[in-house]
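Same chain as my last thread, 62 residues:
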Amino acid sequence: MKALIQFVQKYSTGKVISVLFVLTMAVYLTMLFYSIPAVTSFAPEFLLFDLSPGGYSFKENQ
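reply #2:
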């Protein structure tokens, strides 16, 4: 565990965090504006589970 903490402390610089944030946002925006609309176009009457942050009822889950 100590080695993990030292590794994180060594590499958690502002530059590394900024690069990881930009990469994460690029993946998220690709999903939001390309992947999710493409999947939704195949079944527009259904809402993707990922788009329901409030949870799902038992009926919706069936």
